[in-house]
UniProtKB/TrEMBL annotation, chains A, B, C, D:
It comes from Leucobacter iarius. It comes from the Bacteria. This is Nucleotide pyrophosphohydrolase. Coiled coil: none annotated. Gene3D superfamilies: MazG-like.
Length: 109, 109, 109, 109
């Protein structure tokens, strides 16, 4: 078994998938399904109340992130790079001056 | 406006949220809702077919990742660290020997 | 316990909720969260393959429907009536002539 | 065009699908994806606040219900019948005596 000490999340994920031969199940479509399935489990931690168990939420969030990283890798992109790319778009859509302290959608600002 | 050249995704996200005073909306519950909402939009790219537009998928995936990072930051944890934490659990649950090439849930192996 | 022989789904649901004093948890927001949580569980039946177990899918679909009925009742509307209302809108947006055999969104037709 | 006056929701839905030849897209898997996609749009009405616009929520709920009906029909089952079937299971899992006024999962009661 691979020693993961010091491994990055992406390299550890790749090892886990490779060792189990799971790439065959990881079509982009199946990964997109998996992301929303895990996101639903994360939301279940808040189903009846805004109160939450931080340990459970952390692990459910990790599941969502893991499938997001798997899909990013499958698309050949870096998670941080695409977040930065999208943040630039968000900055342009929601100028700080007009969107400060407002949760409205940009087309309603 | 902050110059983001060379910024990490997390620091760029923090700046964007701070400049717009959006932290007030970012309760863990609201972020969990946002993650599943964005995950649904990602899945919409695959609604009727496994074929997809890689540029659209990349941007939708970035939206899911962005809210995941915001929730991680709100919980005071690092996205990569919690992925690594959870991968260790997954390694134990799904030994490579018994789960190789199988998509079954660990309790069905 | 209420005898449900011959009861409609809505009246049986109302009895179940009333007997357990669950209405206090059923804010529209919590029911909307519940609907997407259960929808994720339904999708899990198709996570890695389009093949499915019809008995499991039927019960997961019933869970989604049950929370949809609970939300409809909370809003004071009838499930069938709002489906009919929305179908009229869909008919106008997607004329049979231009949308026949096409899955594209109406704004792309 | 079919005159829908007095039609049931299910028969109106069947006509709409048949006239547009959409059944070819309605595999159970695609309908399950569609249900969760629409459920995400419903939740979006509550993304930042429990306050909501009843007209928008009603139409988003109708979208979820419509795909639920389409999947039920595809499985050859009646929506009300499967709700009643599942309510019986829920009654047994959550006896009124032990679950009254509690939102906990049945295995935590």
């Amino acid at each position: 078994m691979t020693d993961l000490t010091g491994a990055t999340a992406m390299s550890a994920l790749r090892s886990l998938i490779a060792e189990r031969e799971w790439a065959q199940f990881h079509s982009p479509e199946n990964l997109a399904k998996s992301i929303v399935i895990e996101a639903g489990e994360l939301l279940e931690e808040f189903q009846w109340s805004p109160d939450f168990d931080v340990d459970r939420v952390r692990l459910e969030l990790a599941d969502v992130l893991t499938y997001c990283y798997a899909l990013a890798d499958r698309l050949g992109v870096d998670p941080d790079a695409i977040i930065l790319e999208k943040l630039e778009i968000t900055r342009a859509k929601y100028p700080a001056e007009t969107s400060r302290g407002r949760s409205a959608k940009y087309d309603q600002l």
